[in-house]
Amino acid sequence: MFMSAKKLSTLLILASLGLSACSDDDEPMTMMPPDPDPVMISYDVTVTNLTHAHPLSPLAVILHQNDGFWAIGEMASPELEMLAESGDNSQLIAMADAMVSASGTGLIMPGNSETVSITIEDVDDANLTIASMLANTNDGFTGLNGLALGELAIGGSWSGVGFVYDAGTEANTEAMGSIVGPADGGEGFSEIRDDVNYVAMHPGIVSMDDGLSTSVLTQAHRFDNPAMKVVITRTE
């Protein structure tokens, strides 16, 4: 007995659907690879105060990918002004260009050192900026600005020095009441800018011993560049 063409067609369609269902059920699931673990890159930044009588304010240590946080001949940012006049680094390390930042624990006295550790995730070509105020100046600071770390391998070290800059935001009067450091204990930050209003290499101080009768500073506070030694070691 022959099967009708309509019935045969129906059976073939059902068989096809059944095979498709079996094929879908038996297909192995595609597993997505897990996300890779983050790579942590860490540096130890050791700063030594090379001056005779200038405490260095708590260090600002910043990893970033812009060029830096100051430039000779350009106006200091309000955040840099705050650090250079008062030693307060909180605004500088909180700037939007800072990918990761860290602060020193306190003043670094002449001849002493401090190490600050800083870690960033998955970025091995960051730039490093370090800044600190010379406390017995009106608006003098020292540091390194935008040092490239991309070539520094794990276990490798770099050493150099930081020169002294003038923020150009406060006149270098050396007058009583104008210096925040222990030589005076005077005013720190002031919103009034009464100097050249651009960053320059610091011209140094005069002092009362060299004829500036209104100065609270002595020859002990004079300085020749550089003001700090820096050793950077990649630890991770």
Please tell me about this protein's structure.
- The chain has 236 residues and is of the alpha+beta class.
- The protein has one domain (40-234): Sandwich (Immunoglobulin-like), CATH 2.60.40.
- The chain is 15% helix and 28% strand.
- Strands 1, 2, 3, 4, 5, 6, 7, 8 and 9 form a 9-stranded antiparallel sheet that branches.
- β5 (127-133) and β6 (140-148) form a beta hairpin.
- It is elongated and about 90 Å long.
- The chain starts with a helix and ends with a strand.
Brief overview, please?
This protein has 236 residues and is α+β, with helices and mostly antiparallel strands.
> How much strand?
25-35%
Q: Return the average pLDDT rounded to an integer.
A: 90
Please give the number of β-strands.
9
Could you name the CATH topology? Immunoglobulin-like
Shape: elongated
- Pairing-aware structural class of the strands and helices? alpha+beta
Poorly predicted parts: 10-15, 19-23
**How many strands, which pairing sense, and closed or not: the largest β-sheet?**
9 strands, antiparallel
Kindly report how far apart the N and C termini lie: 83 Å
**Share of helix among residues?**
10-25%
Query: What is the string of SSEs from the N terminus onward?
Result: HEEHHEEEEEEE
Question: Architecture, CATH level 2?
Answer: Sandwich
The tally of domains stands at 1
The helix count comes to 3
Radius of gyration: 31 Å
Under CATH at level 1, the class stands as Mainly Beta
